[in-house]
């Protein structure tokens, strides 16, 4: 028995010596008449004020003989005693302090974590003129608080998991038990549990790892930084995924139309909101197709150009030595370079690069005869159209889609654009979000879900939850109780 205790003490001493190799691991000793107590902690992740007030002051003044008595003296409700070295190491890295007793293998763990986080601020990506001005931050506890504050019901369920063999990031799945389909919840939780990776530093990692088709350029989970939007979709019966360290929350299942619906639409009159939504959809379509149409018509179908417009096009391209496809690629790549440079540089410098660079390069390229002024206007309008996409990740997809359309337009003209469009539509028809159709309510066609798709009808017509989520309670409210 004595040999076993000696071996355990030796293992514990070796364990402490290993931890002391870290420069931010600190240790101290408190001597009592009955025994000596050793304290170990990582100085960079504990709250030093709490440590001095809750631990050191009580240990120096109080009388105790073992860890059990000490645990009853300390004014903390997050205390545990363990002998498991792996658990001790993990809890130390989570911001707890470890108290060891001389000639004992037990350890008393006391929580004194240092929580450094920024304050809740206004949305930066999904900013709206009207409506709430709160946005998620990188702290998952604060984000859960913002959600529970908006949905104060007991059947709002939160399921937490640790993902990442190294980072052990906390991932929370939120849903309303009475509304969400059990199959959707089970799918999300199972896919997150099946993740085998060393690090999760943002919700984008989860989005890529649990998507139905990881090879698709289209995001299959909607991400948002707005707590009000999360509260809205949870009441519809959807599932939200929160990741500690990420200010963006994922939503699923979702549809393609939702990526072009700004949440601000619900704060405006339904007529105004519907017009803005249709303008947005038109702008995105225009952004993808306008430059390919220019290339297709000038390369293969110039005979369909009206005579009044033909003279303008001829004069604008008179000095251009390149074919339409090369001219279009030069301008498109220039726009992408300016956009990427503006995004990566500091804010004030990036704005200057985007505005001044676009004006200078565009004017210089026309005067040098490298591009035509007509195409410069078309490319600029196409870039503006892509900016109307409310969700940034879908905006990136729209930006890249123009290039395959350009190549198809150069090779086969309008037929090539049609072929490329068919390929995209087939891909979208096969795409799913958590097993649900991505093109709903267009395919499968669901007339009742059109009330909040391309247009937004008044709230009195939205008494049913979307069919795509297969909610347990499809009725949101009785129509006779709604305001006319």
From TrEMBL:
Subcellular location: Cell membrane; Membrane
InterPro entries referenced in this protein's UniProt entry, alphabetically: Spore_Ger (IPR004995), UPF0353/GerABKA_families (IPR050768)
Pfam families: GerA
Its membrane topology: Multi-pass membrane protein
UniProt keyword terms in alphabetical order: Membrane, Transmembrane, Transmembrane helix
Membrane-spanning residues: 281-302, 374-392, 404-426
Family: Belongs to the GerABKA family.
Listed name of the protein: Spore germination protein
Record organism: Halobacillus shinanisalinarum
């Amino acid at each position: 028995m004595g040999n076993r205790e000696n071996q355990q003490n030796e293992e514990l001493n070796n364990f402490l010596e290993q931890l002391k190799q870290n420069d931010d691991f600190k240790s101290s000793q408190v001597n009592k008449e009955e025994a000596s107590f050793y304290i170990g902690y990582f100085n960079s992740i504990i709250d030093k004020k709490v440590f001095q007030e809750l631990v050191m002051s009580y240990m120096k003044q109080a009388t105790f003989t073992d860890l059990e008595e000490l645990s009853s003296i300390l004014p903390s409700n997050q205390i545990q005693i363990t002998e498991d070295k792996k658990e001790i190491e993990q809890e130390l890295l989570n911001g707890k302090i470890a108290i060891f007793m001389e000639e004992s293998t037990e350890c008393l763990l006391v929580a004194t974590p240092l929580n450094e986080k920024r304050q809740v601020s206004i949305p930066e990506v999904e900013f709206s003129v009207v409506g709430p001005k709160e946005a998620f931050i990188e702290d998952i506890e604060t984000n859960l608080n913002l959600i529970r504050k908006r949905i104060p019901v007991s059947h709002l369920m939160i399921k937490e998991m640790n993902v990442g063999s190294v980072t052990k990031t906390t991932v929370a799945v939120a849903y309303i038990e009475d509304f969400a389909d059990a199959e959707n919840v089970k799918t999300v939780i199972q896919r997150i549990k099946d993740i085998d990776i060393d690090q999760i530093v943002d919700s984008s990692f989860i989005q890529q790892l649990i998507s139905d088709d990881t090879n698709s350029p289209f995001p299959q989970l909607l991400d948002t930084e707005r707590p009000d939007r999360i509260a809205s979709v949870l009441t519809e019966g959807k599932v939200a995924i929160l990741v500690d360290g990420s200010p963006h929350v994922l939503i699923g299942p979702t549809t393609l139309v939702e990526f072009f619906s700004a949440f601000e639409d619900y704060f405006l009159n339904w007529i105004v909101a519907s017009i803005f939504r249709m303008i947005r959809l038109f702008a995105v379509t225009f952004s993808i197709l306008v430059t390919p149409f220019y290339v297709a018509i000038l390369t293969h179908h110039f005979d369909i150009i009206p005579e009044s417009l033909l003279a303008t096009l001829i004069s604008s391209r008179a000095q251009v030595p390149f074919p339409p496809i090369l001219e279009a690629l030069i301008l498109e790549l220039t726009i992408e370079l300016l956009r990427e440079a503006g995004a990566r540089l500091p804010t004030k410098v990036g704005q200057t690069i985007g505005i001044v660079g676009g004006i200078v390069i565009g004017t210089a390229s026309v005067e040098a005869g490298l591009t035509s002024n007509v195409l410069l206007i078309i490319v600029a309008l196409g870039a503006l159209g892509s900016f109307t996409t409310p969700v940034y990740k879908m905006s990136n997809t729209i930006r890249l889609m123009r290039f395959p359309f350009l190549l198809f337009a150069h090779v086969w003209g309008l037929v090539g654009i049609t072929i490329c469009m068919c390929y995209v539509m087939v891909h979208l028809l096969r795409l799913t979000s958590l097993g649900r159709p991505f093109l709903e309510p267009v395919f499968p066609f669901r007339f009742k879900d059109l009330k909040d798709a391309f247009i937004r009808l008044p709230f009195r017509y939205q008494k049913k939850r979307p069919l795509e989520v297969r909610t347990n309670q499809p009725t949101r409210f009785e129509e006779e109780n709604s305001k006319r």
